[in-house]
Amino acid sequence: MMSIVKRNPRYGWGFMNLRDEMNRVFGSFFDEFDRSECCGTPSADIVEQDDKLTLTAELPGIDKKELKISLQNNVLTIEGEKKQQSEVKEDDYFRTERFYGKFCRSFTMPSEIDSEKISADYSNGILTVSLPKSEKVKPRQIEIK
Amino acid sequence: MFIQFKTSAPAVEIKQNEKGYTIMVELPGSTRDEIKIWQEKGLLTITGEKKAQAGERVFSERVFGKFSRVFRLPEDADFEKIEANYCDGVISVEIPKLEKAKPKSIDIK
User: Fold this and answer.
1) Beta-carbon contacts of residue A63 (< 8 Å; ≥ 6 apart)
2) pTM of the prediction?
3) A68 shares its domain with A127
4) Residue A33 lies in a domain
5) Which chain A residues contact residue B26 at CB under 8 A?
6) Mean per-residue pLDDT, B20-38
7) Residues A81 and A120 occupy one common structural domain
8) Chains A and B: how many Cβ contacts under 8 Å?
9) For A140, phi and psi rounded to 5 degrees?
10) Which of A63, B1, B52, B100 could form a disulfide linkage to B64, CB 3.0–4.6 angstroms apart?
């Protein structure tokens, strides 16, 4: 009989870098505390460009209205709730790996953000938050007089 | 219904009711064209690729690259009538049960 293998979303096909590999080898001790395994918090990436930061978070199957994004003291917080579409009896489930319920994540922004110009978009299960950097921290060329 | 997988892959939910089976797979960030689903010899395969956006990452948790999951369909599944739907990053595959496998009430004469 096949033993039950715990799903690890960090496993991949041929794109595993050293960090992921090390986490996989040594991470099993801390599996209980693994953010993505224990509480269903969404995975996120932050990409930095000269003038802005872009945060993308994986939130498949969520209602846009259930999402709340806020910025306070340069800490961006995303909270929401993923609701199950219909009540189904437990016996009818063969397998459930998906997470339902409330989640909340906060990210400290690496540079100051212009809170007036933040925009967010949700499509294909991805929340994209565009965070333009504040004028003060944008790189600026200085002319030599 | 047994599931085989070579590597861990997207999160899956499988449930059934009287009419059929539903397989839901979380594939956030993949477009409809990047996901392929096919059925062969009673195996349902979902594959695709999640492409990373360009730019310097200051924080990175998301996994990109190819994904694949294979499901063995039960004998009472109607292979001809499988339908798939993609909405908000979740693929739903509906597999109806064969007519003869559906529960039927029997009249008492």
Assistant:
1) A83
2) 0.72
3) yes
4) yes
5) 58, 60-61, 98, 125
6) 90
7) yes
8) 134
9) -135, 135
10) B52
A32 pLDDT above the threshold of 70: no
Q: What is the SS3 string spanning chain B?
A: CCEECCCCCCCEEEEECCCEEEEEEECCCCCHHHEEEEEECCEEEEEEEECCCCCEEEEECCCCEEEEEEEECCCCECHHHCEEEEECCEEEEEEEECHHHCCCCCCCC
Q: Are residue A16 and residue A59 in the same domain, yes or no?
A: no
Residues of chain A in Cβ contact (below 8 Å) with chain B:
2, 5, 7-15, 36, 43-49, 53-54, 56, 58-62, 88, 92-99, 107, 110, 122, 124-126
Q: Do A46 and A34 belong to one domain?
A: no
How large is the ipTM? Answer: 0.75
Chain A CB contacts of B12 under 8 Å are: 95, 97-98
Q: How far is B19 from chain A (nearest CA, A)?
A: 12
- Token couple for A74: 């340069």
Average pLDDT over residues A8-30: 57
Both A48 and A34 in one domain: the answer is no
Total number of domains in chain A? 2
Query: In terms of residue numbers, what domain contains A22?
Result: 9-38
Measured between CB atoms, which of A15, A93, A110 is closest to B65? Answer: A15
Residue that has been written with the tokens 């948790």 in this structure: B61
Q: B33 lies in a domain?
A: yes
